[in-house]
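ok here's the first one, seq then struct tokens
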Amino acid sequence: MAKKGKNYLEAAKLFDRTAAYDMNEALEIVKKASKAKFDETVEVAFRLGVDPRKNDQQIRGAVVLPHGTGKTQRVLVFAKGEKAKEAEAAGADFVGDDELVTKIQQGWFEFDVVVATPDMMGTVGKLGRVLGPKGLMPNPKTGTVTFEVEKAVKEIKAGKIEYRTDKAGNIHAPIGKVSFDSVKLEENLRALVDALVKAKPAAAKGTYMKNITVSSTMGPGVKVNTLKLTAPAN
């Protein structure tokens, strides 16, 4: 196990590692525990009661965080003709077709999200082996394979994030920066929780959200009271 740094150990003294806190209190602890000299990302980890080995229990989707992530996403769009012009007008950073495929095959990856129109997927498919492992392959489930390229680009620029279960049934996602005020972090986390609740597979049995932990990039994880956070609003 990696040795924890001095700042991490000091931050861990600020709270009870075994306790589960209300969402607002947990996020306040994360902000106070941030000791890095840069604006750390606030991340959330969900342990879900699903078996991702089964197709009907895999969870994948996307949600637009109300206040974004604090990071400007570089969007690459595979499109031609009018759809290419639409992507450029919407603020896409890179737009093209075959020439971008060649560039990526040569090792270029100066982008964060890839969007493609359905008619371009035959071309984009050539990049499956390089985009897939990086989680960059466009997918209809996350709204990145679409003819509505203007909407897709604007949502990504506004703070849309993708989520998916890993092999153990966990989901990790950013919900903002330490510099965000607590209300913005709370609203972003709530939006993600609501999206995951709606995405609950019908085949999932027992407790769905088993554990929720929030942390900063370099800080310790703080447990969130799962029952309170997932309880229906009055």
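and now the second one, same deal
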Amino acid sequence: MISRLVSFITRFIPRHYLQHVASFFMKILGLFYRGKKFQDPIDGVKYRKLLPYGRLTVRKNALAPNSMSLERHRLIWLYLKRKTDFFTSQKKVLHIAPEYCFLKPFRRLRNIEYVTADLISPWADVKLDVQSMPFAENSFDLVLCNHVLEHVDDDKKAMAEILRVLRPGGFAILQVPMDLSMEQTLENPEYNTPELREKYYQQRDHLRLYGRDYAQRLASVGFDVLEDDFVLQLPSHEVEYYALPKEEILYIARKK
């Protein structure tokens, strides 16, 4: 029952509407899920199980109610904590389409200047189109932009904008939905209805589905791209305990 409800809500209700009300109800619901089997590394809350999440395919133990983090968010948090100096060095950070689970933890960090941006998000400090951002060149040390590029008309233009606003030596984490069985990204202008986009791109408002050439697309605008298999480097008990995505590759795009 819950899985079917989650699938319907995530398929047909735009995320920016859900964001206005979901956090309050999720915190209450999360009280009934507390336990010891899983832990969200972002806020430290432990659960007996997590909520299901997904549109066409609903994943078990995906959504941590209190922070509203998904598997990829928990992986990114651990990556930043264990493989970067994000939590200790002075940085200016741009977070495009900011995820709720990161907002309070990142704002509490005294070592970072944290700027959120989006076209419609209620949590955005700056309203913008990622294809043309109102920031000077070389403005940020880190850009976070996850599950955004598949929505953008010209994804390479958006990639180039992210590269432009990064400082030399800075990097971006740029996750997208992918089908690793495909060698090339699927992008067809004839798939121009919500139904066709859901059928071919997995979601009604996606404009493409990325394949294994995603790193090459990032590199084509000038990024130095690292495909980091961080999750495969972690002990299996941590992958299970933190409910991480077992095959997710982190795309670390650095400005030379």
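notes on #2: The chain has eight helices and eleven strands. The first strand starts at residue 34 and ends at 39.
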